[in-house]
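Supplementary notes for students who missed Thursday's class. We covered one full example, reproduced here. Read the sequence, then the structure, then the short commentary at the end.
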Amino acid sequence: MSHFIVYIDLCIFTIFLLSQKASCIDPQYVACVPRHCGGHNITYPFYIQGLQEPYCGYPGFQLSCTSNYTYPVLHIPDNDYIIQEINYTSRSLRVYNAAVLSPHQSGCFPPVRNISLEPDKFVFGSISNLTLLSNCSELPEELLKYKTGCRGGGGWDLAVVANDTDLSDAMGVCDTSTVAPVDLMHGNVGGGEYEELLTRGFMLNWKAGDCTVCENSGGRCGFEWKSYHFKCFCPDRPHAWRCRSRMSLSLCISVYKIILSSENVNSILMIRILVACTVYSDSGITMFCHVVQ
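Structure (token representation):
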């Protein structure tokens, strides 16, 4: 009977400790829970403006999510890019220029600006450069195959890939040009294919630090702007790289059973063990109460 009373007292005390622990979960850990946008899981190094705090991501990796949450948008100087794929293991993503989504006639895209990456944040994957040209004079016959098919003014007249031998001639008869990175799956392309190339997008790799160590320890990665350093946000508090290791629940239960099997149950010792297991284990109360046989 005395053992049963000790069990009840310990379970009640566990409830109290766990409730106190839950109320003290670090707010940065709570704030940096992963979010979803357009079917993508958004977590470090990215963060969604308006939905997540800036410290949940790496500087310069802010995303926006459209009002209907259809797709995440990456902001690169002078350009917005739609994210098609995110691979956190390889730290890569496939993007395409948001101008593709703007209303346009067949073959006519809104102006696409040159892309300029910040080298400390992103690098191109395997890409080719597609040169778009406009304000062209009368075209010689050999350049007609590069015409985009845009009807009316304001669009791109020609689209030529960078390794094409006709590129220099095309640039000689056109006044305006811009370069768009594309994922070229085969050799030279005709001008009519440039819509498909721009829509397919291209790969980017990011350089922000790896989050694996922090995540494997139960934390959520983030960034401390004051010190300008990576942080691992954990339930107790932020740490430099990983959360502190947790005491195994099975070890706690084993110690419990050894003590309870003795003739004299030391309540003070039991409470001390309970406090240690509650503080250093994320496991719930149910397993403690189920020690009772």
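Commentary. Residues 2-22 form the longest helix (21 residues). The longest strand covers residues 79-87. If anything here is unclear, bring it to office hours.
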